[in-house]
């Protein structure tokens, strides 16, 4: 498991009580959160105005990083008070397992995370189940019982997967293909070679 960015003991971490100083420090920074910490709308506005990248990290009892929220002040949109804490126990686990046909994987309960800011990303530890460089799929389970495949090839890096969070539904990380899932068309990066091939093809037709 990755150490939580070599910050020493818990007392040496930036905490929510240091929020204003951290955000106004003039650069990207990390804040370690506790179960009771929430970001107010004003807190998020401060991050947006700073244009800095603030990472909210949750540690376990051994000071290891469980997950982190990455909030990029230059790109997120404020949507109100945000609770960054994820429950350790998954609600309605039997129902979820049946819906996913008892596939192997890791469930993430984001139900506490009301008002997810648009553009926020979650980095979550999966290293106990998946090895580095393995590719996993990301699913979302809606309140209507519909399963949506959000990502088909998330790569595990240093024991973690990272993805943008769109809502606060239950998410599921797995290598299994869930046949009844609705597949979301994923945005692909800019491919210069494809553009070159198209241009050459047009030139060939003209000539």
Give the SSE layout.
Blueprint: H1 19-23, E1 29-32, H2 41-50, E2 53-59, E3 65-72, H3 93-99, E4 106-109, E5 121-125, E6 135-141, E7 147-155, E8 160-164, E9 170-174, E10 182-183, H4 192-206
Provide a concise account of the structure shown.
With 207 residues, the chain is α+β, with helices and mostly antiparallel strands. The protein has helices at 19-23, 41-50, 93-99, 192-206, and strands at 29-32, 53-59, 65-72, 106-109, 121-125, 135-141, 147-155, 160-164, 170-174, 182-183.
What can you tell me about this protein's structure?
This protein starts with 18 loop residues before the first helix and ends with a helix. By secondary structure, the protein is of the alpha+beta class. Mean pLDDT is 87; it is low at 1-11. The strands form two sheets. A five-stranded mixed β-sheet has the order 1-2-3-5-8. Strands 4-9-6-7-10 form a five-stranded mixed β-sheet, with no helix packed on it. It has helices at 19-23, 41-50, 93-99, 192-206, and strands at 29-32, 53-59, 65-72, 106-109, 121-125, 135-141, 147-155, 160-164, 170-174, 182-183. 18% of the residues lie in helices and 27% in strands. It contains four helices and ten strands; from the N terminus they run H-E-H-E-E-H-E-E-E-E-E-E-E-H. 25% of the residues are buried.
Total beta strand runs: 10
SSE string: HEHEEHEEEEEEEH
What structural class is derived from the secondary structure elements? alpha+beta
Global shape: globular
State the major sheet: 5 strands, mixed
Radius of gyration: 20 Å
Report low-confidence residues grouped into runs of 5 or more.
1-11
What's the total helix number?
4
Report the mean per-residue pLDDT as an integer: 87
Strand order of the largest sheet: 1-2-3-5-8
Distance between the termini: 59 Å
- State the helicity in percent bands: 10-25%
Strand content: 25-35%
